Amino acid sequence: MGEAFGWGTVAASSLVIGAIVALLFRIGLRTIGLIMAFGAGVLISAVAFDLVEEAFEMASGNGWAIAGIFAGCAVFFGGDVLIDRLGGGERKDAGGGQEGGSSLAIVLGTVLDGVPESMVIGLTIFKGGAVGAAYLIAVFISNLPESIASTSGLVAGGWKKARVLWMWIGIAIVSGLASLAGYALFQHSSPDVVAFVLTFAAGAIITMLANTMMPEAYEHGGKWVGVATTIGFAVAFTIHVLD
């Protein structure tokens, strides 16, 4: 169980690293948009090859895996709508749109974005006896642009640097706890239930990418976002093949 918490925290530690980079260096919005697009491509590959493909291979039928995708989409969509109404809709805005938002909603929204992918880390440790290197690296890489963009926006919106940094440290710990939960909650579950959980995370991540990360990336990065996303996908797929 300690391993699940540790690896979940390690994967989320890139949130803190990205925040430090954004606090120490001034990064242009176009660059941030392209970095976010790269991270989106990484996550798309992780969803396709480390979550959905594996879930369909282990499930006794396609129903559990398909249900998981739509359940994850529905839960994230509902949570995202609620966070928007509470004032956290601009949590990934690199231009400072968080200024008029609710601090609590921004934090809750950021946690919502990261919990599904963190739970899968713990689940893969239980299922395979070791952390899945390709998926772990994909989550680590994708967290960097998300943190850089959000940190830049929070500081531009008036947040104190220490407050931003402690927020990311707290979220990294929560991510470690989510990984621990993924390890502990499904130890006696059937392969169908595990497949459901994997695709649930996949559905939530896809919805997050489409609703929050990719629109923000395109707003600042323009048409080169397509190239950056493809590169991110190719890098993550290469890691998956080599794992």
Question: What key attributes describe this structure?
Answer:
243 residues, 8 helices, globular
Explain this structure to me?
This protein has helices at 2-24, 29-58, 62-86, 103-128, 133-156, 161-184, 191-221, 224-242. It has 243 residues and is mainly alpha-helical. The chain has 8 helices and no strands. The radius of gyration is 17 Å and the shape is globular. The longest helix has 31 residues, at 191-221. 56% of the residues are buried. Helix 2 (29-58) crosses helix 8. The protein is 83% helix and 0% strand.
Query: Which structural category fits the helices and strands?
Result: mainly alpha
Q: Approximately what portion of the residues adopt beta-strand conformation?
A: under 5%
* Range of helix content: over 70%
How many DSSP-defined strands? 0
Distance between the termini: 23 Å
User: Which segments are poorly predicted (pLDDT under 50) over 5 or more consecutive residues?
Assistant: none
Taking the sheet with the most strands, its summary is: none
Spell out the helices and strands N to C: HHHHHHHH
Q: Roughly what is the average pLDDT, rounded to an integer?
A: 82
Radius of gyration: 17 Å
Number of helices: 8
Shape: globular
